[in-house]
Amino acid sequence: MTAKSDIRAEADRLRAAFEARGAEPVEADILQPAGALLDLYGEDIRARAFVTHDPIRGEMMLRPDFTVPLVSRHMAEGRGQARYTYAGEVFRRQEDDPERASEYLQVGYELFNGMDAAEADAEVFATFATLLEPLGLRAEMGDIGLLRAAVAGLNTSDARKAALLHHLWRPRRFKALIERYAGSGVADARRAALLDADEPFDGAKAEIGLRSREEILSRIAALRAERETEPLGAADVAGVDALLAVSGPAPEALSTLQALCDRLPSIIGAVDDLARRMDALDARGVALDRVRFETSHGRTMLEYYDGFVFGFYAEDRPELPPVATGGRYDALTRAMGGGTGIPAVGGAIRPGLILLLGGRP
């Protein structure tokens, strides 16, 4: 077992490397207000975070990551372009995989830059690739923006699009919704009976739970309206399936996506952005033929990523979590800035895994 003091020393080394690139070191409280995270992600975040209650400050969470408090601070101070680095423990529940640590040290590098998104993405990825190169890790990337653009272009209602966007981060739920909207999902007899009832509360027992009668009736009305919406067309469903299936070396994946634009014209802008990002990565010496691109990459990360996403993995240790992950989170800065944001991208490394895999690179 790696000594915690050694992990901290490695974290200090990584943070110093980011400082040498112009990053300002920042700290964040271990206890964070739960409200901000719940507002952003809903109640699902409770399944992944440690929640407690402070008699004065109310509901709190042990810090699940640094990005949200960092963005909150940056936006509150009204700052523009900036580079940050941090190092400290994060805490995440691992009920699905009890072998994984629920507390570990994380070192991050975050770039707030509204000038050129492709260049900023390339800078962050190339910086991580350089630091981790001696470990021989497998590099992967994706782009949540492609899926968001595809959903926006579907020939269906705004309510359905909103539901699909909400579940981008839950691949099985997203697939089930696509199938349901296409009319090919498994029918739910109890739901159908409820929606067909003239008086849904007739025969109901005592009302329990957090939702009021008005909220329940509003939800039933929304489901009834959704049921009357025309099914998704076969071409739309096939296009989304084809997009999700794109996987391979980055240059080959880009060619596949460019060809797919004929079937999904709504993704043209996102594909052009991806091409510019790859050009910027190539200019920084990144061997793109050794980077794997997957459209679905990053869909099980925390939900603030809305564009470029990446990860570095130990090829011969598939049981380990990624050594580093990151991505673009422009929408998060807008959400925490009251509608006014600044493009931002960053990532985090787990120094404990670096030592586990063979020491300092």
TrEMBL record:
Keyword Glycosyltransferase on entry: yes
Any single biological process term in GO: histidyl-tRNA aminoacylation
Official protein name in the record: ATP phosphoribosyltransferase regulatory subunit
Class II Histidinyl-tRNA synthetase (HisRS)-like catalytic core domain: residues covered: 10-195, 224-350
InterPro entries to which the protein is assigned, alphabetical: aa-tRNA-synth_II/BPL/LPL (IPR045864), HisRS-like_core (IPR041715), HisRS/HisZ (IPR004516)
Residues that hold L-histidine according to the record: D65, F66, T67, R92, Q106, E110, R299, Y304, Y305
Keywords: Glycosyltransferase, Transferase
Superkingdom as given in the UniProt entry: Bacteria
Parts of the chain that traverse the membrane: none
Gene3D superfamilies referenced in this protein's UniProt entry, alphabetically: Bira Bifunctional Protein, Domain 2
GO cellular component, one term: cytoplasm
Molecular function via GO: glycosyltransferase activity; histidine-tRNA ligase activity
Glycosyltransferase is among the record's keywords: yes
